[in-house]
Amino acid sequence: MAVERTLSILKPDATRRNLTGRINAALEAAGLRIVAQRRIWLSTAEAEAFYGEHKARGFFRDLVSFMTSGPVVVQVLEAEGAVARNREVMGATNPANAAEGTIRKLFAESIEANSVHGSDGPESAAREISFFFAAVDIVG
Ligand code: CMP
User: Fold this and answer.
1) 117 flagged as catalytic
2) Closest approach atom of ligand 1 to CA 9
3) What is the pLDDT of residue 1?
């Protein structure tokens, strides 16, 4: 399997509870290398643009409001099969359905405040990485 990259976001519920180190440790233990990382506070326009594919969903306004409620940590993760590997260590979107030992099972508060975001495929990974990072920011 090829070495690939995926975008990860540690969400406001994670930064608020001082969980960034514990989540990073879980990502690294799963073999994901953090090759770029920045702590930012998303504007409403940025959150709307990032989550544009969900615009028609009933939860869109709440999602944007939550994602702008505090700082987030945006990261690029690198590994063989990074997209799938990150999705596995994150666990299901709804923590009620997340497997034991996954980040969302361990830390998520709800389907909205679910601690982490990860790209859902190689194309979205490329788009999401370029949303936050220039090539020179990524040090593999
Ligand atoms: P994320 O991987 O960041 O992508 C979109 C987010 O919308 C998702 O994680 C959830 O945190 C959030 N969300 C809120 N409500 C729902 C819902 N009913 N179904 C799916 N995602 C939801």
Assistant:
1) yes
2) 3
3) 76
